[in-house]
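Worked example

This section walks through a single chain of length 177. The input is the sequence exactly as stored; nothing has been trimmed or padded.
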Amino acid sequence: MSRTPDRPPAPLSPEQQETWFAYMRVMLRLGYEMNRQLQTDSELSLPDYDVLNALADSPDGRLQLTALATRLAWERSRLSHHLQRMSARGLVERSPSATDRRATDAVLTAAGRAALAEATPGHADLVRRMFFDGLDPALLPPLRAALEQVHEQVLTHGTLPRPGQPQRRLPGLAAAD
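Given that input, the structure is written out below as tokens.
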């Protein structure tokens, strides 16, 4: 349990409840739409895309399984099963860790990099249409600040270690690319 035993949990205020429900509606529906678009356009699932993206963001396209699980906020067993399926499709490989031979790295293959590059423009277009096009541009800085504050709270009070920092942006997601 994450609360202190000597203090009962405080209820959410009405504004907090409505904000939380709004977030949940967006998160659940957007996740569905992103998964559907990726499967239709590129035969990748959203979890596939998340793994490929995390690996592409890492030095040499590789991460130790523990670090990858932390970055994705997945259980190690879920990651292992998912990597097995992705390996069978040639998108990733497992190899002894480049830094610790007792550990295993997930490695982005050329086919995985190509699949990610092919999927990214359509994914970015969907994100733009579904998330940004209906949003007043003046709300972007405060929304980003709010999301970064929430993320910091999750990292500070959550149970997973802090993930490593991404190394780069993916081509096609940024307007300058």
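What to look for: The domain at 27-157 is CATH 1.10.10.10 (Arc Repressor Mutant, subunit A).
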